[in-house]
Amino acid sequence: MVLQRVVVIHDACRKINSKVFHWAPNGLSLNSGDNLTLIAVLHQVITPLGNKISVDSRLAFGANKKVIEEEVARKKQEYMQNEELAHIFELYRSMQVRFNIEIAIGSSPKAVALKSATKLKATWLILDRKMKNDEEYFLKKLYCGISRIRSYDRIVCIRGPIDTPQQKRSYRSSETYADSSIPAYDFSTDLEFFTIDIFSNRFELELS
């Protein structure tokens, strides 16, 4: 069976809705050896004065390299200290499904999403809630399955994979998030919790 490579696109300027990760194992029939990667797209940063500016330094009011680096470092620390993400890591580790996080910088979220899905050879792409107007763009550019997070905490399938072995798997066209009861995980005792590693039992945080 061909392994699943699921890519979830998230606007890094917003709080992570971790319920999508509780849905994915059953909604996409994830098995041992499969891989899910969260792409946190950093397309703008907040200045000390509270203004939002683009990460595109070519623009007149674009952020400079130092500001972007500081924001990336802050986001990395935020994710490392997120207890809910620690719970997700433990859940996926118990299923032997690899869970990764990448912070991707780019002024165009859809361009970053396409590049990430292509680089990771995604078999299924889950778009951020705000990417409603970009659905047709991805349908034309990609052959993988595509879903999008919509209102009322629902994930709706836009299209299944085209001419790939993944079509043989069972997918749910629409699913309401359900809270999962997961035992607390004390990641302060796991010295390798945030180590970049090739093994499936590691929580990986990469800066792209």
Q: Could you state the order of secondary-structure elements as H and E?
A: EHEEEHHEHEHEEEE
The termini sit apart by: 30 Å
Total domain modules:
1
Q: What is the level 1 CATH name?
A: Alpha Beta
Biggest beta-sheet profile: 8 strands, mixed
For this structure, what is the CATH homologous superfamily? HUPs
What general form does the structure show?
Answer: globular
Q: Which second-level CATH architecture applies?
A: 3-Layer(aba) Sandwich
- Biggest sheet, strands in spatial order? 9-8-7-6-1-2-5-10
User: Which radius of gyration do the C-alpha atoms yield?
Assistant: 17 Å
The CATH topology is Rossmann fold
Determine the mean pLDDT. 78
- Counting DSSP H or I runs of 4 or more residues, the number of helices is 5
How much strand content do the residues show?
25-35%
> Which residues sit in consecutive blocks of at least 5 with pLDDT less than 50?
176-204
